[in-house]
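During the no-cost extension, the postdoctoral fellow (Dr. R.K.) reprocessed legacy sequence entries with the updated structure-token encoder. One reprocessed record is reproduced below for audit purposes.
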Amino acid sequence: MAGFRGSPAPSSRRPVKAVAEAARVVVPFEDNRVLTQLLGEYDSHLALIEDRLGINAHAHGNVIILTGPPVACAMARDVLEKLYVRISKGESVGAGDFDGLIRHARAEDTVSDGQAQVATRRRVVKARTPTQSTYIRAIDKHDLVFGLGPAGTGKTYIAVAFAAHCLEKGVVERIILSRPAVEAGERLGFLPGDMRDKVDPYLRPLYDALYDVLPPEKVERDLETGVIEIAPLAFMRGRTLSNAFVILDEAQNTSSMQMKMFLTRLGEGSKMVITGDPTQIDLPPGMKSGLEEAVHLLDGVEGIEAVRFNVADVVRRDLVAKIVSAYDNAK
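Re-encoded structure tokens follow.
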């Protein structure tokens, strides 16, 4: 079939990489309609596999031919077959799904069993890195989990997705999401409007995550009835949070006293996830962050786990990972 005018050349015309000790693996697929989605626009998903695994991959009829190191070809075959099954079941698959499975495979995690996931009514959130899988399993197993690491690693998003999952399954009765109202030197008093108008900009990332994993009408209804509560950290003082999934985001901006206060809110039947990036502290000069202190003090306590993400876990996009690395290297 002739391509659209001005469109890139199909993958079969891409330059072929030189591959030493190459294996040749032919992967057949029955449904060409599913195969088309698997390949991606202009075979972009095959290009991603080539780039990540250092192999050659091209489609011919109803098969995909892989050429390269045997282990890498085996990984590519597992990834393609796994995602073909997902598409056959009606799931939408994108570049991030390929990237996630490849990361797991390269970490010597089995593609079929190693990738943890969280299912909500609106979507299935699949771990895209081995650390994300560890994080999901930690939240499932423990009542208190710290998620530490740079922006773009999915710390908050996965926690919100897990909270939505627990709410829908009846494991908890409500979701409580909180953040300290400290951001890059800004002060609430200088913002216009009432208290909600002042704090909403600080809590917007939590709203965004909720609307992504739950139907909008459910989010609106649950916010109105108090089943889902989003509030600044200061509003947590004096409360006992029972039968709830509690998330504290941007926890690097808590003081020692604030962190202790928040941790001691945990009541019966509740789970708590605390996320933050210790390298992005916006507290006033001289004020110690309560996040790393809490992780250190609670190390080894039964029922508590800390999961540390790094630049290799950034899934937002490759450029974000490069930015994080540049700042880390400059220290």
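The longest helix spans residues 70-88. The chain has two domains: 19-115, 131-313+320-329. The remaining legacy entries will be reprocessed before the final report is submitted.
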